[in-house]
Design a protein that fits this description.
Layout: H1 3-11, H2 16-23, E1 33-34, E2 47-53, H3 58-70, E3 78-84, H4 89-104, H5 107-119, H6 128-137, H7 142-149, H8 152-167, E4 175-178, E5 182-185, H9 186-189, H10 192-209
Parallel strand pairs: 2-3
Antiparallel strand pairs: 1-5, 2-4, 4-5
Helix pairs in contact: 4-5, 4-7, 4-8
Length: about 210
């Protein structure tokens, strides 16, 4: 993914062009992609929204505060979940961190601080000493973390995340998916607020068509 291109597009969020782009109804193939085949969802009866992200992605990091404000405002019939995109071995390592946090019951507490540590504090997470110090500082037993990271459960979830990344045809982050039927890339959203506005629109499309019950 072209970082300069993405940075320019995200920067346009401050310009009228970004607002104008969202003033019209989002168009298939321009503002979002329709998936074929349709992917199964985890929560029947709910409109599933997935964020595919990577902890090392600076644009995922800047999207996080927007998501924190947007998620609580989702309609009652929508269900949001995160999936760490796995496109290569390095991204798989970061997916391990996400699922280890989840298994240890600390994901809600450490998801944002870990993002901050990587992008604000320049944590060298690939260095065991630095990572272990960060874990200890944040109240995580290093031995339990290491055992959990290597566990069958966590490794299975990482493999599943890789399968989902491929099935949804994710080629960069952040990316958002709606009910196994639509995806919105950063480029298609044009701005981060644009991405969320398109997802809001697609939630309405799924609801109107009665697709959440299928």
């Amino acid at each position: 993914m072209n970082l300069r291109r993405r940075t320019l597009m995200l920067a346009l969020g401050l310009a009228p062009l970004g607002a104008l782009a969202q003033a019209r109804q989002p168009a298939r193939g321009v503002d979002y992609t329709e998936l074929s085949p349709v992917q199964p969802v985890e929560t029947p009866g709910k409109i599933e929204v997935i964020e595919f992200f990577w902890y090392g992605c600076p644009h995922c990091y800047t999207l996080e505060p927007l998501l924190e404000r947007w998620i609580p405002k989702l309609p009652a019939d929508a269900q949001f979940r995160r999936v760490p995109a796995v496109l290569n071995p390095n991204w798989a390592d970061d997916a391990v961190v996400f699922y280890a946090f989840e298994a240890l019951g600390v994901l809600g507490r450490l998801h944002r601080p870990y993002f901050d540590a990587l992008h604000r504090d320049r944590l060298k997470s690939r260095e065991a000493t630095a990572m272990n110090e960060w874990l200890q500082k944040n109240g995580v037993d290093v031995k339990k973390y290491d055992a959990t990271a290597k566990s069958f459960g966590v490794q299975s979830k990482v493999r599943r995340a890789a399968q989902l990344s491929a099935a949804y045809r994710i080629d960069g982050t952040p990316a958002l998916a709606v009910h196994g039927r639509y995806t919105v890339s950063a480029e298609q959203g044009r701005t981060q607020n644009g991405m969320l506005a398109t997802v809001d629109y697609l939630i309405g499309v799924v609801r109107k068509a009665g697709l959440a019950a299928k």
